[in-house]
Structures are given as structure tokens and as C-alpha cells.
Amino acid sequence: MRMVLSDILRNGLRDQNPGLVQLLGLCPLLAVSTSVANALGLGVATLAVLVTSNAIAALAGPWLPREVRLAVFVLVIAAAVTSVELAMSGWWPGLHDSLGIFLPLIVTNCLVLARAESFASRQPLAHALADGLAMGLGFLLVLLALGAGRELIGHGSLGAGMDLLLGRSDAGSGWRLFPERHGLLLALLPPGAFVLLGLMLAMMNAWSSARRRAGHASGASVAEPAS
Prior knowledge:
single chain, mainly alpha, 68% helix, flat
């Protein structure tokens, strides 16, 4: 079924957000998001792989036999991840080293394969590109929110280490909000990541419930006959 572009963007950013609704790709989401710089680097890399793999799946998917389609998509995703990793190693070596094994592990991110197989291969190119962009941006925004929260609580700073992305030595300190010695170590450890993600999920669910109640209330007021 073909969708409107606005629906595709809304699904990726809100209704079917991969990090807060579908809960896909949680391993790198929780492991790497210790700072804004790491979160932004991994998010951009995942976005590039999603857009590339979706585009190729939309072009090649209709022509591939069902028996080999998944294998071809895995090879395409692996090639895209390798290209992104090599580019990052050449242009941003510090960030590449900081992300470590989680950069090549984008190949195993079920979000990328799921979008290529379940959506992009069944849609025209424009819709597949929009879906890759929307899902990638949705994943990136969750990464950034989690990375900013963990860096702020754990280090007392925001944007430290941005020189790894910007290539400027004067961009590495970021904004210092309180001394690092007052930071909470738990926020930088995996249990802290689970706690913060749980709080984000609770806020997302509360907001969704409030929207549904408001929609039901408005629908009931419209249906009520005038006296």
C-alpha cells in the first residue's frame, strides 16, 4: 500500500519512531549515547545507511526472487555500512575510534533490514527515500536526546568532544554547566541509559495517551447534538 509522504515522515519521527515506539536498535542506542558527539556520529551514520539501503531496495526489490531477496539486502546493507565506516575513518578518525565496534554493527541493526524488506522494496523510490530519511531522523533524535541527558548528568557538560565531528580544536569543550566532579556516574553506565530511556518512553506514552483522550473528547463534542 502506497502512503502519502507526510504520513511517512510522521511515522518515522513520531508514530512509529524506531527508538521510542518500535524499540529497534537498542544495543547501540544504549551503549554509544554517552555524549552528544557520539550520538550525533552514530545517528548520522545510521541515517546514511538507511537512506542508501532503502533506495537500492526500492530499485532492485521488485526484480529480485523472494528466495534471495533477504540475502541481497543484507549484502547491500553491509556494503553501505562499510562505505560509511571507511569515509568516517578517513574524515573523522577520532569519532571513528570513539564509536568503535558499534559502527560496523549497524549491519546487524534490525531497523535497517526491516525497513528495506517490509517497506522500501514495496514502495516507489521517492517514498523509500522519505522513509529512510524519516526513520533515520527519528533514530537520530532519540540518540541525541539520550546522549545529551547522559552527558549532562554524568559530566555536567553539553557538546564536549564536538571537535571529533567539526575538526576544530576549539570546539571540544562544549558548554560546562557544572563541575564534572559533581556528575552522576550512573548516567554514563548501561543501567543509567536504561533508566533514562525508560523515562523517555514514559513521557512518550503519557503524551500519546493525552493526545488520544483529547481526540476522543473532541469527537464526542462534535457528535453531541445541539440542544
